[in-house]
Structure formats: C-alpha cells, structure tokens
Design brief:
By secondary structure, the protein is of the alpha/beta class. The protein has two domains: about 150 residues, Nucleotidyltransferase, domain 5 (2-Layer Sandwich); about 180 residues, 2-Layer Sandwich (Nucleotidyltransferase, domain 5). The chain has 14 helices and 14 strands. Strands 5-4-3-2-1-6-8-7 form an eight-stranded mixed β-sheet, with helices on both faces. The chain has a six-stranded mixed β-sheet with strand order 11-10-9-12-14-13, with helices on both faces. A hairpin with a 7-residue loop joins strand 3 and strand 4. Helix 1 crosses helix 3, helix 10 crosses helix 11 and helix 11 packs across helix 13. It is globular. The termini are close together. The structure holds adenosine-5'-diphosphate (ADP).
Length: about 400
C-alpha cells in the first residue's frame, strides 16, 4: 500500500511517497515558490540523484499535479499510474481543541479545520489548499489529516491555561496547544521501544531541537506539558524565534522603535532566537558552532543561552512529572549537534545522569548516549514525521 504524505505550506509543498508495507520511501521532493515567480521543483526517486526543475507554479493544484506527473513519469517515476497511490496523509498544523487524534478527511472535517484557522492563520489555510488540490486531482483516494497539536491534547488544564482573564479562553480558546506533536509522539514511543520498556511505565522528556524547537513531558505515554503555546513562538530559544520573553517587552520595544504589533511579531518570529542573539551571524547551528570555535563571543553567547534554556525546561518537566526516566534528543540539532547535547547535559547531573562522550560522538542514529548505570538515560532518536503520518494514515484507512 502506497501513501503520499503531503506537508503543504503557503508557498511550498513537501512530499514523500511511502510504501507502507515495507516502510520504504519510494520518492520525495519539494515544490518551492508556489504562487511566486521563480518556482522550483526538486524530486528525488529512491536511490537516485535529485532532479531539479525550474517551473512556475501559480497555484498549489499546479504543484500537486507536477508532483503526480513526476511520480508517474515513464523515466524517473516510481509508480506506473495514480491508481498506485492508495491514500494521502496531510500534515495539518492546528487542530484546536476539536482534534485529539488523526481523522479521515471529509467535508465536515474540512469545515472544522477551517474553524481552527484563526489560531494558525498562516498555516491552516495553506494546509487546506493542499488538501483541496489533492481532492481535486485524486477524488477517490482516501485522505487523512494528522495534526501537529493532537498529541498534546492530553495536557491537563493547569498545564494549558495561561494566567490571563479566563474569558479569553472561553471566548477565543486562548490556551497552550503545543506543536511538533507527531514528532514528540513518535520519538517518545521509539524511546520506550528502544529501551525495551512499556511507555506506560515511563516518564520521558522529548527535546525536539530543530530550527523550530520544543520540549514535551510524556508521562506514561501521555503528553502532560509542552513548551510551545497558542503559537509556535513560546518556549525555547529557536533558530529565529524568541521563545519565552517578558510579554511587556513587546510594548516597550514597539514604542521605542515605532513598530506595530504585527511588526513586533515579525521581529519575534523571524529576527530573534539564536540569529538575533548572535547579532545576526546565523540561525544555523553549524555556522554558529564554527563562529564560536573561532572565538566569536556573540555566537558563543547565543549557544550558551540556547543550551541553558533547554536545560531549564528539562528541569521544569522533571518537576512536572515528579521524575524522569529518559531524556531524548531529536530533530536537526538534537540528532546532529554533538556539542549542543554535551552543553545541555552538563546541567543535568543532579538528575543522576551523565553523558558518555564516546557514545555521544555520532550523528543521526538511534542510541543511548548516557553512561552505563545512569539513573536517567539520555538518548538520540531521529524523528520521522512523514513515516509517522504514513502509519497513522494506514491505521485509519486500512490496508
Ligand atoms: P526544521 O525545524 O526546519 O525542520 P531541522 O530539524 O531540519 O529544522 O533542524 C535544522 C537545524 O539543525 C539547523 O540549525 C542546523 O544547523 C542543525 N543541524 C543540522 N545538521 C547539523 C550538524 N551536522 N551539526 C550541527 N547542527 C546541525
């Protein structure tokens, strides 16, 4: 059974075609600059080089049709006809309080996703455009919506409410939702499997450290807290996002600089994080690592501040769960940045864990990286959101 996994943004569309029977990725790709001049489609069939094509894609439907053409191309395609696509799994960013798990998409679900759009105005409408384009081109193929927020819906009220007038929750559903849920769920489950334990017996902290970054507390298989909030801006210091700040800073800087609320949001989303902290060096941890190694103080400060914030969240979630058995690193930085893992782990010895420098000296592999006999285990588990979406799609539509 082949599942097409679609992650549709406002001007881009990422996809993978997965054979769900053997979990082989048959092809993957990316359409960029949809609706803008200078469009580009990158397509990579399994075991072959990337094929890059300059092609304008005025609409998302055009982008999806290019993807389908590439997948069925006589030369570089991986399937003979569209009939070999058995289901489509869509990543949907915000499921609000309506969706606590993945669902088969029908008209009612589409309306409900639209209703969540005010909570994610940049993401949900774009995700839905992807859904509608696929429905137009593959009207008889079952489709599933997998939500970034769903895994976090088990959080208790005390974790998801903010200390602001309750009427804003009642009227507008202002609360913590959390994101990266597909990754947190996958990585928490893999952590338990990898250690040969039942997740129901474990307290796990998952650190999803990518360009966007979040931490979650997974107690006995259920998410009880997570660092992102109403939007993905809260929590950790990220590539370009500020994470937690004193909310009064927004009004203070806006007044000094003559900025509007939406301009301030742009500062906090796009110009902050390690990019802003390093005084503009880079949002990429490889660049920052190199700059710090060659003595750049601003880069060093950005990396120190980043690691300190992650360690503080781990401490908070160990308290939230009254203990922790495993702390798992994942995503671009978590999987690949050896020195960031060391820096974060240096704050955690009070928990009864010590990083093993030799075991930690690797990238992108599943591994325990704490010393033998550590009370709390440290792990690296590469995340695989697409595979998780494909599995959830199969689980809902059947083989
Ligand atoms: P996104 O949130 O965009 O999906 P990723 O999970 O791909 O982000 O993570 C991107 C981050 O991972 C970048 O900051 C990049 O520097 C970092 N990263 C990737 N590979 C390495 C590496 N080998 N060493 C250090 N950092 C890395």
């Amino acid at each position: 059974m082949n599942v097409l996994v679609i992650n549709c943004g406002s001007s881009s569309l990422k996809y993978q075609l997965i054979n769900a029977d053997n979990e082989e990725v048959l092809a993957k790709g990316l359409c960029e600059r949809i609706g803008i001049d200078g469009g580009m489609h990158t397509y990579q069939p399994k075991g072959a080089d990337k094929i890059k094509t300059d092609v304008d894609m005025p609409t998302h439907t055009k982008a999806v049709s290019l993807v389908l053409e590439a997948l069925t191309d006589a030369k570089s395609g991986v399937i003979k006809s569209l009939g070999e696509i058995d289901a489509v799994g869509h990543r949907i960013v915000h499921g609000g309080e309506k969706f606590s798990k993945s669902v088969v998409i029908d008209d009612e679900v589409i309306t409900a996703i639209e209703e969540c759009s005010s909570l994610a105005p940049l993401h949900n409408p774009a995700n839905l455009i992807g859904v509608n384009s696929c429905r137009e081109l593959m009207p008889n193929v079952p489709m599933v919506a997998v939500f970034d927020t769903a895994f976090h819906q088990t959080m208790p009220k005390k974790a998801y409410l903010y200390g602001i007038p309750y009427e804003y929750y009642r009227k507008y559903k202002v609360r913590r939702y959390g994101f990266h849920g597909t990754s947190h769920e996958y990585v928490a489950n893999r952590t338990a499997e990898f250690l040969g334990k039942d997740i129901k017996d474990m307290k796990i902290i998952v650190c999803h450290l990518g360009n966007g970054a979040s931490v979650s507390a997974v107690c006995h298989g259920k998410c009880v807290d997570t660092s992102m909030g109403l939007t993905p801006l809260e929590g950790l210091i990220m590539g370009t996002r500020s994470g937690d700040i004193d909310p009064a800073i927004i009004g203070f800087i806006a007044e000094k600089e003559g900025l509007s609320i939406s301009e301030m949001e742009t500062v906090l989303n796009k110009k902050s994080g390690v990019l802003g902290l390093s005084d503009g060096i880079s949002s990429d941890f490889r660049d920052l690592g190199q700059a710090a190694d060659s003595g750049n103080e601003a880069a060093k400060t950005a990396l120190d501040t980043y690691a300190y914030r992650v360690a503080k969240y781990i401490g908070a979630y160990a308290a939230a769960m009254n203990g922790v058995d495993a702390i798992t690193f994942t995503a671009g930085v978590g999987e690949n940045n050896i020195s960031a893992r060391v820096q974060i782990s240096e704050y955690l010895t009070y928990l009864g864990t010590q990083i093993d420098i030799q075991k930690n000296d690797m990238r992108g592999e599943e591994a325990v990286i704490s010393k033998d006999g550590s009370k709390v285990q440290l792990l690296v588990i590469p995340t695989d959101e697409e595979m998780s979406i494909a599995r959830q799609t199969v689980a809902l539509v059947g083989r």
